[in-house]
Amino acid sequence: MQAIRAGLNSAKYAYKTPESAVDYLVVGGGVVGLAIARCLSQRFSNQSTILVERHPRAGEETSSRNSEVIHSGLYYPPDSLKTRLCIRGREMLYDHFPSHTRKIGKLVVATETQRPYIESLHKKAQTLPWPSSFTTPPDRPALFTRLLSGEEVRRMEPNLSDDIVGALFCPETGIIDSHSFMESLEKDIVDSEGDLAYSTRVVRVDPATDSSNAGPGWVAQVVTEGATESDAIFAKTLINATGLSAPLIVNSFLPEAKRIPIFYARGSYASYSGPGISGISHLIYPCPDKENHRFQGLGTHLTLDFNGKVKFGPDVQYIFPSEDAAPDPDFWSRYLVPDDGRLAEMHRAVSRYLPGVKLEGFQPDYVGIRPKLVGPQGGFQDFVFRTDYPDDTRESQHSPLVSLLGIESPGLTSCLAIAEHVVENILADVDRR
Ligand SMILES: Cc1cc2nc3c(=O)[nH]c(=O)nc-3n(C[C@H](O)[C@H](O)[C@H](O)COP(=O)(O)OP(=O)(O)OC[C@H]3O[C@@H](n4cnc5c(N)ncnc54)[C@H](O)[C@@H]3O)c2cc1C
Ligand SMILES: *[C@@H]1O[C@H](CO)[C@@H](O)[C@H](O)[C@H]1NC(C)=O
Ligand SMILES: *[C@@H]1O[C@H](CO)[C@@H](O)[C@H](O)[C@H]1NC(C)=O
Ligand SMILES: *[C@@H]1O[C@H](CO)[C@@H](O)[C@H](O)[C@H]1NC(C)=O
What we know:
GO terms for molecular function: (S)-2-hydroxyglutarate dehydrogenase activity. It catalyses: (S)-2-hydroxyglutarate + A = 2-oxoglutarate + AH2. By secondary structure, the protein is an alpha+beta fold. The protein has a domain at 1-68 and 177-261 and 376-433: FAD/NAD(P)-binding domain, CATH 3.50.50. Helices cover 23% and strands 25% of the residues. The protein has helices at residues 31-43, 81-96, 115-127, 150-156, 178-191, 246-252, 343-351, 411-432; strands spanning 20-27, 49-52, 69-70, 101-102, 106-110, 146-149, 166-170, 174-176, 195-197, 200-208, 217-224, 231-240, 263-272, 283-286, 301-304, 310-313, 317-319, 362-372, 384-388, 401-405. The chain starts with 19 loop residues before the first strand and ends with a helix. The protein binds flavin-adenine dinucleotide and 2-acetamido-2-deoxy-beta-D-glucopyranose (3 copies). The site of flavin-adenine dinucleotide has 40 residues, from helix 1, strand 10, strand 18 and helix 8. Residues 158-159, 275-276, 278, 356 line the site of one 2-acetamido-2-deoxy-beta-D-glucopyranose (NAG).
């Protein structure tokens, strides 16, 4: 079970002297990179921001292959970045993007033996404070939940199993149309004069220490689809929001022993049409199995999209590169094709709470890959914001490379708060040194 510790394959590209310069270069056009570029271009209108994305469109990787659930912030340790950024991000999404979000609520359903689990989640929710990022916290609990009896929850969702004896109702949970949301982020960036460069891949990053003209910073070499030559861009500050590829840039200049390991956990979805889901109007989550560690995934749950389409997923399946070949950092892309090998197990998992569903109604839908910093037995792992500098000089402290690592769920929910954290805390801190 090998983790990948690869870096960018920079050897193919010789160092080039930069022909252009930018204040902020954001690498990666998923929800996180877009939210950061939006925040930068709105906040620093007198400085330049460019976002580069290797695919022809935004969000082609993990940002379009997830459950599209706005999480409430229930599951992670109370003082973790995941909890704080999730709660903050959730509120920002509902407030700023009302037409792309819908607060439909979720039910975590429990059998008799699982009752203590929902009771402990409820107890925890009662004590969660509003994160300090709220200067004037709303006049309501940060995370409202209510315990329901089996009868109460079956009144809300009549097709739930009689084995379900209770549920935790979480009205703050919702859904988001991630595609229209990303289009809005793009529009905001362009409106505040940020630049978006698609079909453009960063192939090499070098720290720039010579202070000949612009001072310290980073030289990023990019290749644009269809161009014969690469371009080198000098960036005063580089933000690495490349999701599954995020460790590659940092690893390219770290010694082997210090490199960041990356694990990949595949999650498959099945669409469903058939009996056993009459009038479903809430997201429905099972309690995670004891054996199946709850930090790895939340169990095969039911989600609804904006068109009312029902899907089940995602399951958790760690994937590993082949041992023999030099590991290809993009090996995971071969696993994006959904297959029907997961359907029987999914049907079994869902039948425990929705006994009327039929295997024939499950169709493979899509697959997403979680960027994991820990392996299958790893336990809780928070988001990581790593800062590197071109060298040890004082000057260079103004030119960070900020890498966002392990931005798995709730990364979509948190993206606006992640952007705020990077811009207002990490970069503001840098400027004050
Ligand atoms: C199965 C699954 C279910 C999930 N469910 C939820 C959920 O319900 N709610 C929730 O809040 N979160 C959920 N998440 C998490 C959420 O999807 C991610 O946290 C979020 O999409 C991460 O966004 P990102 O911008 O960091 O990464 P990405 O979307 O992966 O974006 C990174 C971008 O960088 C680009 N890139 C990479 N390398 C380069 C390069 N060298 N040059 C240029 N561009 C490059 C890529 O093409 C990609 O577009 C889920 C994740 C998975 C896998
Ligand atoms: C940009 O504007 C801010 C105020 O909005 C100012 O503090 C800062 O010095 C300006 N930066 C540059 C590079 O002009
Ligand atoms: C981004 O960060 C990741 C994770 O550390 C690293 O592997 C990757 O090389 C970085 N990319 C850039 C462009 O710095
Ligand atoms: C689902 O609920 C509907 C409406 O209450 C009911 O007619 C149907 O029999 C239920 N099916 C199952 C499998 O519980």
